Amino acid sequence: MKGTRHSPGIGTNCEPAVAQILLPKKDDCVVTYLIAQDYTEQFAQTRNEEAVRDMRRVLTERGCHHYEIPIIMNLMPETAEEAIKLSPSLKDPARFPDDSLDQMLEEIIHYRQFQ
Q1: Which pTM was predicted?
Q2: Where is the RNA polymerase Rpb4/RPC9 core domain (predicted)?
Q3: What HEC string does 36-102 produce?
């Protein structure tokens, strides 16, 4: 499929910067999604769908925000200190008193090890 000057198609030889300017916003979202999906598939530490569902359930039940869940699931911090460095919002004593963050991470690591 060839594109025109105003709508580049797949297979054109446009420079990426030019293609980004010419592509509609919807196409940018699709491209970004495909890149993120490829990255996730390449580096995913957990491939078992049931384990992923269980991990997500645990994180949701323990009070993680929607943006903290992928950080924890993809980067798999092993300690509360490491998790807080990756997502400073986890340093909230009202949500994670004492060592509850460490306990949550240990449970998540358990799912990864026994998938």
Answers
A1: 0.59
A2: 1-115
A3: HHHHHHHHCCCCCHHHHHHHHHHHHHCCCCCCHHHHHHHHCCCCHHHHHHHCHHHCCCCCCCCCHHH
